[in-house]
Amino acid sequence: MVASIVPQLVPAFYSLMYTTVLYGGLIVAFIGLIGIAMEKRDIQVLILTDIVGLAMLIIVAAVGTDLSEALILPGLVVELAEIMAISEILISHEMRKKDVHTSFTPIPLNIDMEIMTTAPNFIALLLIGYGVFLSGFTGGAVAGGGIVIYVLSRKVRGLPVVVLDGVGAISGISWCLWIIGFLFFFILPQYWLLSLFLAALGLLLKVASKIGLIGIMMREEYGRK
Amino acid sequence: MFNLALWVYVGLTLAIFGSLATVWGPGVKDPVIRTINTEVASVGVSLILLTYNSTLALLTLISTTIIVTLILFRAISRLEEIGADV
Question: Which of B4, B49, B74 lies at the smallest CB-CB distance from A13?
Answer without folding.
Answer: B4
